[in-house]
Amino acid sequence: MRAVLEPALRRYGAPLTVTLLVMSAAWVLLMIALPQLLMVDYSLRPMLPPSKLGGPEDVHTLRNYGTLWSNAIHLGIFLKTVWGSALVTAVTLALSYPMAFYLAQVAPKRKLPTLVLMLVVPFWINEILRTFAWYIILAYNGPLNALLVGLGVWAEPVRLLGGDGGVIAGMVYVYVLFMVLPIYNAIETLDRHQIEAAHDLGAGWIAIHRRIVVPHAKPGIAVGCIMTFMLAAGSYAVPALLGGPQSRWFTEIIYNWFFEGGNWNQGAAYAFILLVLCVGFILLMMRLFRVGLTDIAR
Amino acid sequence: MSTPDRTPIQHIAKAFTRRLLLKGAAAAGSVAAVGPWMLREGHAASGSVRVFSWAGYISPDMLADFTAKTGVKATLTEYGTNDELLNQLKATGGAGFDVIHPTVDRVPNYVEAELVQPLDESKVKWDGCIASAVGGSAGMGGVVGGKRYFAPADWGTEALAYDQTKAPLKYGEAGYGDLWKPEYAGKVTVRGHSGLIGIALWLESQGKLPHPVRDQFKDEAKARANFDAILKVAAASKRSVGQFWTNENEAQGAFRTNGCVIGQTWDSTAVALRKENLPVRFVAPKEGALAWMEGFAIPKKAENVENAYAWINWFYTPQAGALYTNHSGISSTSKGAEAHLSDLNKQFFADAYPGDALTKLWWWPIQEAWYVSIRNEYQDRFLAA
Which chain B residue lies closest to A252 (C-alpha atoms)? Predict the structure, then answer.
């Protein structure tokens, strides 16, 4: 604490430091801690009509958390969401790493702005609209089916929406930038000479990536994976628009508790379980890649 | 949810209301109280009303007509399902809107959750509404605990929509079972929970349901016994479903872009597609079309209550009712609206309910909160089957 405060006091002076601290604390408390606490409180109470609130039935219970373990359908969807999000993360990583490496080390500097612009332009459009674009492309009467039927690949349109394929393709497209940019940032700081030296000493491309580029890019890869996994696990629009009953996401179950079942307390418990899952995944990734919090904040 | 415009006039109007409330008891009967009261009325007539209604129901023309006739500015927000409306309102404790548009069988949910206020029946011009709708709605959920919360606005059905070139149907022969014929496999669209009721009516007509369908809305054990039998058939037929729908847009999309040729949809879905010259038609099944009634209710914390009544009373004119039906394809309960209907809507109605279809309508029973959660549970199992 002292180590943080002293330089800040020296640099900004007491009034500004206090102001900054108070503002950050207010942000963390009001915008992050309080809503989460409210949700936890909700999740620990049974659903009751207003007339019974504060009555003898209004007690704290873990029943809402138990529901997930006793409901085989929801548990299956929960595990599938974890697996699906991991798959999305892996596919996004496989796609993004070469892109990021090309941008950071191979692409000529004067081409860089154009290339980055091409990556960023789709993100000027809202995520929901981008997902709707995929909905139209993949639709039964959509352009992709029309093209494939026209080329004679299929005799009759195929239902591309409503399965896992559409959902995963949609998510990879929507989240690719969150993977490319952190990895690009990490690889960019790698001195080219290291790669050249390794090359001169006879290392093949695989060895260069495995022993030099990937270890250097680890924090970027970890940040990219964490962001992609969390966005994928918490995504609602993509599975709702591009998926079907067989590819339901856990977020859709949470939405369903709130907006169809009308049981907010149950929904809050499910949402909290998803939050715990995400935090667990982050810790696991950090452990796996042996990165600390300070590496990520760099 | 949109935030309402906070014009200075509204602030003044609100201030008057509060002052009036404070003085209310003390100054009852005093001549001085007449002043603010009159002023408040004056502001109300030129104020605004915030309407929360179904997506695709209220057209910009209707809003303009309402403003032209009453001088009140109406802002519209839309929702896609009854539960979306209920839970949006729950989030604010019944604030944010002046008029809502629930289905009559769900009104007891709002009363239980303390989200709506009883209507002041003396302020509603009931003469403008079909008498049987007003009377009938009382037993369907519109009156709870002796108090009326609901002013009927429209009624419609959920029945069979079909592509007349690829899946022609005929009234009298067509039933809910037609959806699950092998030739339509992969090209059917239904809504999870009401699709189950369609199967229930089909099974009931063959004598294969443990209890009458109506009984499952009253008794939890019977509901579960019936749903177990329904789910068995539904799960076996699920392969047929090309797309599930939950709201109007999705139901239209199933036919328009997703290759479905038959489905159990709302009448409004079929009207909208027919207006686009798609070969989609709509007919009541022989077991009876699922009929619902919707109407207006006033949320507990509505800020412009007088304007909410102005909205209801404007709706109870033949012109407004016809504007509504011509736009949405849903029959309004405004008296005399039928004289102003477009030819397409007249033809649609005649095609949908030939012969004895209107006498066979199957009105949704009241759906209480316990029933909705069982319904949701079985819908989940149907979707996951």
Answer: B380
Helix (H/G/I), strand (E/B), else coil: A296 = helix
Delineate the domains of chain B, giving CATH numbers in brackets.
8-155+293-345 (3.40.190.10), 156-292+349-384 (3.40.190.10)
The model's pLDDT over B101-153, given as tens digits with 9 standing for 90+, comes to: 999 999 999 999 999 999 999 999 999 999 889 998 998 999 999 999 999 99
Q: What is the total count of domains within chain A?
A: 1
In a domain, A285, yes or no: yes
DSSP run (H or E) holding B231 = helix B220-237
- Interchain contact, B369 vs A248, CB within 8 Å: no
Instruction: Indicate which CATH number applies to the domain containing A238.
Output: 1.10.3720.10
Q: Where are the beta strands (DSSP E) in chain A?
A: none
Tokens standing for B147?
């108090």
Residue A262 lies in a domain: yes
User: Is A150 exposed, middle or buried (CB count within 10 Å of its CB: 0-12, 13-18, 19+)?
Assistant: exposed
Asked if A165 is an interface residue toward chain B (Cβ–Cβ < 8 A), one would say: no
A49 and B379 within 8 Å at the Cβ level: the answer is no
> Which domain does A291 fall in, by range?
71-297
- The verdict on residue A35 lying in a domain is no
**Cβ atoms within 10 Å, residue A201:** 9
pTM for this entry: 0.78
A244: which chain B residues are within 8 Å (Cβ-Cβ)?
A: 243-244
Cβ B282 vs Cβ B171: under 8 Å: no
CA distance B256 to chain A (A): 8
* Residue A254 forms part of a structural domain: yes
Helix (H, G, I), strand (E, B), or coil: what is residue B190?
strand
Strands B151-163 and B331-332: antiparallel
**Burial class, A170, CB count within 10 angstroms (exposed 0-12 / middle 13-18 / buried 19+):** buried
Q: What percent of chain B has pLDDT over 90?
A: 70
